[in-house]
Every structure is written in C-alpha cells, then in structure tokens.
Amino acid sequence: MQDSTRLALSGERLTATYHLRASAAEAEAEARARAICVEQTVEFPPELIAEVAIHDQVIGEVRALRALAPGRFELVVAYPVEAAGAELTQLINLLFGNISIQPGVRLVDLELPPGLAAGYRGPRFGREGLRACCGDPARPLLCTALKPMGRSPAELAELAYRLARGGIDLIKDDHGLTDQSFCRFEPRVRLCAEAVARANRECGGHTRYLPNVTAPAGELRARARLARAAGAGGLLVCPGLVGFDAMRALADDDALGLPILAHPAFQGAHCASPDGGLAHAVLYGLFNRLAGADATIFPSWGGRFAYTAEECRALVAGASRPFAGLRPILPVPAGGMRLDRVGELLEFYGRDAILLIGGDLHRGDLSANCARFVAAATA
Amino acid sequence: MQDSTRLALSGERLTATYHLRASAAEAEAEARARAICVEQTVEFPPELIAEVAIHDQVIGEVRALRALAPGRFELVVAYPVEAAGAELTQLINLLFGNISIQPGVRLVDLELPPGLAAGYRGPRFGREGLRACCGDPARPLLCTALKPMGRSPAELAELAYRLARGGIDLIKDDHGLTDQSFCRFEPRVRLCAEAVARANRECGGHTRYLPNVTAPAGELRARARLARAAGAGGLLVCPGLVGFDAMRALADDDALGLPILAHPAFQGAHCASPDGGLAHAVLYGLFNRLAGADATIFPSWGGRFAYTAEECRALVAGASRPFAGLRPILPVPAGGMRLDRVGELLEFYGRDAILLIGGDLHRGDLSANCARFVAAATA
Questions:
Q1: How confident is the model over A189-200, as pLDDT tens digits?
Q2: Which residues cross the membrane (chains A, B) (predicted)?
C-alpha cells in the first residue's frame, strides 16, 4: 500500500489568483499567502507534517505575490491537480472552500492545465451552439420570462404563445416558478412547450421554451427529462440553489442534450464585497462554464440591482475568454432591463449576448413591444 | 382549469425578517420593503398585474417595518406558504434568492407555520439524539479530523484508531478528503471505519467515524450508502458545495439513518457583510436544521477565522431555539481551536456543543493530548 512519504503526484498544477488585503508590510502578505496554501490543502500545521512529499507535492505553492496598491496584493497559488480530484465539488472546495470564510481574500481568476480541464466537458452548446439553436440571427438573442407567479399553466402558455409569435428567441420560466400547487411543473411545461411549438409552426420561428428545473436533489433529473419529453428547448437552472455540480450533471446528460441558462438566485453574496468572495468573472463566467451553462444571467448595470459597468465587462470576459478549452458562453444582462435601453445594451454587450427583458415588455401592447424589442436589437 | 383571478390559497404565511439599509427617510425604507415583497414573489411591475388575487394572495406582505438605527430598518415580510411549494430549494429562493444580489438587505430570521414546517423532517438525531449516539457523556462531545491530505487510507486509519482509543467521540474526515487518487474514498472509509470499530471493541467506546461524502450530484447518495455499509457512524457534508437540499435528501434517507455534520466550506460569503447576506443564526442554524444537519461546524471566535463572540452566540441560538418543530442541533466551534482553550470554550458553549480540535492534538504526544482534551472537557 502507498504511503505518504512516497507520494508520486504528476506535478501538474492548477493555479488560482487571489486578491488579498493585508497590511502594507510584505511579510504579512507573505504569511497570509502561505497560510492560504496550507488552509486549502492540508489544513494542518505544516511544522507538524514530517513527510517531505506532502510539503513538496500537496501543499499549495506560492507562485507569485505582488503589491497592487497599499494593503492590496495579488497572489497566485499553484495546487496539485490531484487535490482537486475529478470532481467539481472538490475543485471549488480547493479553490475557495475554507477561505471563503476568511475576510479579505477574493478569488479573481483560475487556470486549469489540460489534464484537469479534460475532465470537464463544459457548455454543450456554448455561445455559437446556442446562437445556432436560435437560427443564428444577425443580432443578440432575445429572452424574456413567463410571469408573474400566480398565473395558471394555461395563462402562462397563452403568454408564451404571444411572446413566441412576437419573435422572442428564448422564453424562460420565471425562476420562482417551480412546482407550486397553483402552477404545477408538469402541466405548465407541457402547455408552454406546446404553445411555443404551435407559434413556431405558424410563423416558422425558432423560439425555445426553457422551463425552470431547479428542484430538490432527487427530482432535478426527472424534471429535466420530463421537460425534454414535453418539448422544452432548454433548461433554466439556479446553481446557487442546487449546487454547481448538479447543473453540470444536467449539462453532461446526453439523454437531455439541452442548452442551459444559469440563474444567479442565492449567489449574490459571493460577489458582494470588493475584497472578498469571488470576482464576477469567476462566479458568472468560469464557474458556470465548468458547470456546463451555455448562458449566464446576471443583473446588468443600470437595472434594479447594483453591478457596475466595469463589473459587467469583467463578467463578460469571464464568460468568453479562452479557459480550460471550454466553449465561451453568452452573457445575459438582466434585472430590470427596459426596451428604451436596448440601444445602449447593444452597444455595450454587442451581438454575442442575450438581452433579457421581463416586465417592461408588458407595458402597453405586448405584441408591439416584442416587435420594438426585435427591431431595436436588429438596429 | 384554474385561473389566476380566482386563486384560492390557504392564507397561511411564512415570515422572513430582514435588516435593511436605507436612508433615514421612512418613505425610502417603505419603498424598499415593498420592492422586496415584489422581487421575491411575482418579480413583475405590480401596476401591470390586473388580478386582484395575485396582489392579495401571492405578493409578499409587509407585516412590520421599524427603524433600528439611523439608516437601518427591520422588516418582516409574510409570504404565502404556497409560493415556497414543498421544496427546500424554492423555500430558500423565496426567502433570499434574488435579493441576495441586492446590497443592504440581510435575512436575519424566519418562521414557518405548522403546515409548511410539517414538510421538513429536519435533523434525524439532533442535539439529544447525537449525544445519545455517543453514550451521552456529562461533557461536550469531542471531535477531530483525519488529516493532512496526502496521507494514505492506511495511515489515516491508523490515526483514526489512535484517536478513538484516545476517547474522541466523533472522528471526521477532513473536508478536503474526497476521492483523490492518493486517497480513494472506498478504501479510506473501509479502513477508517474498521479501525474505529476495533478501538471501540477494545475499550468499550462509542466513537463514531464520519467520512466526508461531499461529492458530485450523481455520486453523493452512493458514497453515503457505501459509508453506511462500511460501518461509518455518520456523515460529513458541505451544503455550500452540494446544495442544502442534497444534504436534506441524505438526512431523510431512512436506509442511511446516520447523523450528519454540516461543514461550511464555500459558504463564507453569505455571512461576510454585516448588512447583507444571511445572519449567522440563519445560515448555520435555521437553514442547516431545515436541511437535516444534526450538528453545525463553524469557525469560532478566537481561532484563525474571524467570527466574533457575539456572532457565535447568535449562531448557537439559531442552532437551538424552537424553530418549525425541528430538533435543536449541536454547535461545533472549530477553525483553529486549541487544547489550552477548552476551558473557555466550555464556559462559552456549555455542555451542549461539540468541541472540534484538529492540528493542535498533534503537537507532541497524540494519546496524551487526547487524554488532556477529555479531561479538560470533563472539568
């Protein structure tokens, strides 16, 4: 049997980049950096570890540490790929499990070497695939949500029909619609999928209906399969509620083969502090790509949430930059977007985005507003 | 078929208490309060909802709003139980899904009415049950972790044997041990469970071994069952990595019937800001109880993390106060606790706690340190 004095790991390393808050003293930053390397791997006083192999091969290694500003440092840690195993849950734990609880450390970037990256299929469709699903129009894709909560399946289906006739590419359930007594999952999904299919037949459209399959652990897969069988064209998933790996399992399920929109419910705290948690690019971009989302919904600047334009720009970079050989995904600016802002959204996000407008489509005539939405996005 | 003009919900409501940051103007706080009621339910401009029934029965209702301090308010919102469905994922979404992304709103408490609470079994063992599992000693329970990462299953099993002989009640895997190539889950769990059983036979002890079953969505249940079959006496789960509901599913699995320790990896951001996210009592106490944990590990004041004594006290209240008819659970202060602090931990947390000491047990003679740990906790 192996023993830990003779570990023989591959030497392959993944790297995590953190921003650290520390007093301006270089020594304090160095001590914090080394403490992070220990905390995220052996979580054990290093002076009590006799095995040289564990020091050399298991404990994270400080690759770089440099001052960004007084009291702020950038730290790059290299971790052995074997510590991450072949599991997204453990990869996230390795990158930011315990240190999520420590103040003043933020995960701002990561890189996976090919051997580790090969374990993640990532987005099945990605940016180009999802655009192709929608007929690859020469404009951003357009999305809206079925709501409000309280409407019946038949009423939501009628709404879905009108939105599909209006030329919306992606019609998702509101993420608050699950399987409530007043709007059961099965009839909602069946009726809405039928309504969208009817609209597509009538006008030759490519509209896809994406039900919300966020559900208890034991029911997620069944709901997704039921959605597929009912004719859904994609899935809405809240990884903050079900866990990133549960979303990955849906993305990797060949029997489903449906594009996935990730919704950020219950994930807000991760990005709330500028010097703790996760950078927007990591949470919305890199983690969602590892977990197989094809598009990432986020509250855009200028809506009823609070992200800045700079944060949104960084997020888009996380969704689209080369990363672990995974497909880029589409950013979905949302959260109180309005028809009269489509022009500036288009200018900011460009064609490779999904513009999501909810309530504002319902001010006045829905069909006319859909036509305005399409026209503004095509401009 | 039902229609939304004739919703007939039960009128039963759950309540959520939030702390809000707002300008001192009462009107701004009232507007924020109403916006939260809308955001968390219909997520739709209320003036565009024609159905009186949705206004009356679906949209959250402000039950109370009062100033706590200049610019800080306490808000109580009542939500219809039907909006939460019968799903922990949706209950959490209803309480704090979208507003997790808004700055300046913190979920500090919740109450479920009996009809909704009846849908949650909660902790299978709870405080008294878990104590009984360990022979109900007249002292806090004692816990430690198998580490460091890099040791082989046989080495960890040898360590588990010595710790069990030393009288530690609960021996858990380090939460970074999953199913890595250098320490596979199956042999680790088998050998460690055997080692603890052998120690128990030799000295008549009640020590339990709790492997870390945090795993990809499709493997969690299988690992837990494998652990049970191998003789594990409980499970360690990181709900921040697998989702709260996945932990609940393990707790509710009658074929397992094992106590669960919840570990806070990747949950730190939820409590990081004093005026956003979740109160410690909610995250570590109420949510873990809804999700079936029997004990809640957290970084205690005075360790290498940053919670204050006041936060720890509030957390213990959330773990133990009457809530939804669910069993109280044991707080597990951890995160760099030391033998020389057992006295003050005992004084602070009392007998109804699990004291977790990791690395410090290994400074010098392990057996002597275990004896010191038992003696100090018994004092």
A1: 999 999 999 999
A2: none
